[in-house]
Write a structure and sequence with these properties.
It is globular, with a radius of gyration of 14 Å. It is built from 3 helices and 6 strands, in the order ββααββαββ. The longest helix is centred in the middle third of the chain and has 21 residues. By secondary structure, the chain is α+β, with helices and mostly antiparallel strands. The model has no long low-confidence stretch (mean pLDDT about 90). Strand 3 and strand 4 form a beta hairpin. A 6-stranded antiparallel β-sheet has the order 1-2-3-4-6-5.
Length: about 140
């Protein structure tokens, strides 16, 4: 299910999807995020980081969370796009210096390096993890 919203007072535009995180569905949600960033007139560099964020955050739910039901939100506020995933696990992510010879384990570290902000917080029913990127930051 896709929910779209607009708050004129805060100049906030958003899309939200209730989903079950599965690796085979990542391409679909990347396409949806790409359409949203295009509709919002975002630069290719912003879209690239947003798509990486969608892939990484949903992949982590699919891989690490026993209940893969979650919410994916894309929000445009003040010129920055934020990708947020809400899931039902209270296990917070751990970001460490990657082992460059390993096949996995560097996604959140890379996102943190590319984005303006990467964070996470516990919620009443699990946690939320987010990545925020603005056009100024996306020129790498």
């Amino acid at each position: 299910m896709t929910l779209a919203g607009q708050d004129a007072a805060t100049q906030r535009l958003s899309y939200s999807w209730l989903l079950t995180a599965r690796r085979e569905d990542l391409a679909h949600f990347r396409r949806m995020a790409s359409l949203a960033t295009r509709a919002w007139g975002q630069a290719p560099g912003v879209t690239e980081v947003v798509l990486h964020g969608v892939t990484e955050l949903l992949s982590n739910v699919a891989r690490h969370v026993p209940d893969p039901r979650c919410t994916l939100e894309l929000t445009l506020v003040g010129g920055a796009v934020q990708v947020t995933v809400h899931d039902r696990s209270t296990a917070l992510p751990v970001i460490t210096l990657p082992d460059w010879t390993a096949e996995e384990g560097r996604g959140l570290w890379l996102l943190r390096e590319m984005a303006d902000d990467l964070g996470f917080a516990l919620t009443d029913d699990g946690k939320r993890v987010w990545v925020r990127v603005s056009e100024e930051r996306a020129h790498f």
